[in-house]
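Hypothesis: this fold can be encoded by more than one sequence.
Test: take the structure tokens below, design a sequence, compare later.
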């Protein structure tokens, strides 16, 4: 087949390199404007541009502003944004960069009049926006041409073998629609009636192999009937950990898709089931906050950690920290770390959840659980990127398999990183049985549908209140 599968990382690099160069050009042109508007004390333009301070600004500013472009979320999904989204992201990033430059470099500059100062700010904004947006448009237009000519495409597997699935596959591969998809096969959903498909019918083993070989760019689920949520959730449960975007056809609207945003610049409005309904800039800001807060917490709480470590060590034989494998983002296993609050042999008879009056909990452990002090070492998991400050509580695979049998929708919480705290922990607290885990999951699903920095802040404040008041148990 003509063309090749799209590299998202390469496209990100194109946009980032373009932003770096155009920002450098914009700031260079701005410095020329500064020379003619301000009293620089230099007799020639070259003399002004060659000043050590100006040269240093020309080097540092473009790289600094690149951080704002990243924070805006522009690079997160380079092929999944509309033209309007591209305009608004560039416009807002230019405005923020303009303000940052003004307060960092220009606020003390000598201006003959205030109107000239305002004029200089407008010039800076105009140059940053026009230079950056123009080159971004050129890259986006070139990308669309590549998709139109079938030079680029997304290798896609349709999960579903019904008439609806076949019709969607035909629309995606129609050369006149220029959607950029290359359907390489169908995987029938269990219980569906097979249809005559022009593409290869593959099984789960074959799909696993294709994903491992990084041949597949995305999976699109097209169930035969609306309301077939459990079958869709079983597919999610199987492929969440493979790192491939999973989308569902818009005709399959149900509780699975009612609160998930539709975003796709290539015309077919598939709904992404593998990402939460949170804006890209908030996702990036959430990660920055995770790193900064967890790092500060590990430093500032280190004296308390030392006291707790001594107390745990003296309370009963065994290690200070308790490590256990949990299932996290996209069902990836990781090792959670906590202060040990139970006897070392607490699970000698197999996995057990704690219960009220549990004799396995040490005296020190009981105090730590009351104030949730045993959870504090998880700031290290947050710093490593395995967890977030706020997110659904991670469970062990042993319990997840039981939860999924009772509540298949539990699979959806793996759209995000697990958290030290969550709305489920705030509203429900510790779960002492699989039934209670299912009940707590309902709060986490509501959180996923309403994720925002503001909601995270509220959950953190409620958690702080819980810790201070000792309502952790």
């Amino acid at each position: 087949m003509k063309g090749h599968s799209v590299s998202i990382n390469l496209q990100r690099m194109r946009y980032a390199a373009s932003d770096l160069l155009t920002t450098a050009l914009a700031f260079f042109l701005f410095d020329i404007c500064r020379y003619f508007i301000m009293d620089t004390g230099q007799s020639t333009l070259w003399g002004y541009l060659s000043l050590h301070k100006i040269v240093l600004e020309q080097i540092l500013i473009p790289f600094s502003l690149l951080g704002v472009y990243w924070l805006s979320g522009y690079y997160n999904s380079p092929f999944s944004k509309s033209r309007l989204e591209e305009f608004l992201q560039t416009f807002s990033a230019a405005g923020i960069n303009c303000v940052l430059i003004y307060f960092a470099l220009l606020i003390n500059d000598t201006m003959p009049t205030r109107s000239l100062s305002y004029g200089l700010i407008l010039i800076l904004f105009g140059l940053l926006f026009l230079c950056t947006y123009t080159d971004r448009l050129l890259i986006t237009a070139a990308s669309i041409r590549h998709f139109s000519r079938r030079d680029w495409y997304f290798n896609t597997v349709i999960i579903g073998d019904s008439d609806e699935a076949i019709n969607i596959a035909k629309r995606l591969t129609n050369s006149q629609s220029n959607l950029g998809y290359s359907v390489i096969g169908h995987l029938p959903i269990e219980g569906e009636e097979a249809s005559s498909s022009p593409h290869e019918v593959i099984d789960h083993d074959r799909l696993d192999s294709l994903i491992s070989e990084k041949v597949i760019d995305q999976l699109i689920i097209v169930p035969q009937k609306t309301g077939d949520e459990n079958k869709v959730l079983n597919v999610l449960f199987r492929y969440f950990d493979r790192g491939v975007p999973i989308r569902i056809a818009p005709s399959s609207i149900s509780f699975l898709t009612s609160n998930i945003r539709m975003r796709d610049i290539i015309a077919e409005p598939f709904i992404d089931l593998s990402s939460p309904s949170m804006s890209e800039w908030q996702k990036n800001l959430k990660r920055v906050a995770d790193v900064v807060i967890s790092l500060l917490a590990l430093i500032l709480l280190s004296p308390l950690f030392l006291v707790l470590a001594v107390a745990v060590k003296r309370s009963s034989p065994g290690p200070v920290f308790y490590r256990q494998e949990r299932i996290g983002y996209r069902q990836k296993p990781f090792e959670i770390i906590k202060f040990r609050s139970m006897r070392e042999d607490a699970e000698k008879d197999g996995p057990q959840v704690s219960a009220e009056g549990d004799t396995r909990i040490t005296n020190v452990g009981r105090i730590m659980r009351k104030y949730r002090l045993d959870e504090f070492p998880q700031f290290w998991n947050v710093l490593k990127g395995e967890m977030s400050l706020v997110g659904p509580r991670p469970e062990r695979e042993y319990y997840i398999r039981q939860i999924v049998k009772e509540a298949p929708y539990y699979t959806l919480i793996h759209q995000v990183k697990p958290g030290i705290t969550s709305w489920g922990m705030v509203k429900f607290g510790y779960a002492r049985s699989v039934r209670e885990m299912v009940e707590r999951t309902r709060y986490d699903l509501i959180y996923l549908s309403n994720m925002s920095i503001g909601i995270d802040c509220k959950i953190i404040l409620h958690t702080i209140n819980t810790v201070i008041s000792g309502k952790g148990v």
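The radius of gyration is 27 Å. The longest strand covers residues 152-159.
Hypothesis status: open.
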